[in-house]
Amino acid sequence: MRPPTTRITAVLLATATALVLSACGAGADAGPPAAEQVERSAGMPDEANDTDVHFLGMMVPHHQQAIDMSETLLADPRVDPAVRDLAERIRDGQQAENDRMNAWAGEWGQQEAMEYHSHHLANGMFNPTVLGNFAQLEGEELQTRFLKLMHFHHAEVIAMTQDEVDNGGYPPLTDLAARMIEVQTAEMAEMEELLGYVPSG
């Protein structure tokens, strides 16, 4: 797990991530660098803050990309059972988390913020070209690429997730973020074991 980061550090990390993705051909758009001030609604809990809303808006599309990548892998019947099991857990776990986060956003009246962030590629997300090339692969080549891409996808979002743990105000969401870090860190170790090495990005 990465050490806690301040918002300034998170901005620097997001900038560095954008450069890394550009260099490796992922072509991500870093999007807004920090949590913007949001309009509060009657349904928003008193303890919820801008970091919480920013996290919901950025994490839901990030999760959705992992869900879609997992579905692509699972559509190939030749995938190794161990990799298939991992992809099923990623898909099901992140879908459940998205359902919960979308429900909070709806209750809080933050549909506009969610729509705003839904178009951003950040925190390790991949552009359509990368995903299109991934979808053309089959069998062992597909599963190897899945493990490498998903490892990067997980690793790059942990700083943002830690920022929610450190600076979010809504305890159920900060607890969920802490659990995400635990699960995704464990899944990264599992990917490394399946690959037989630690991907370099």
TrEMBL record:
Keyword NAD set for record: no
Region of interest called Disordered, as start-end residue ranges on this chain: 28-50
Pfam (any one): DUF305
Keywords: Signal
Residues making up the signal peptide according to the UniProt record: 1-28
Domain called DUF305: residue spans: 52-195
InterPro entries: DUF305_CopM-like, Ferritin-like
Name assigned to this protein: DUF305 domain-containing protein
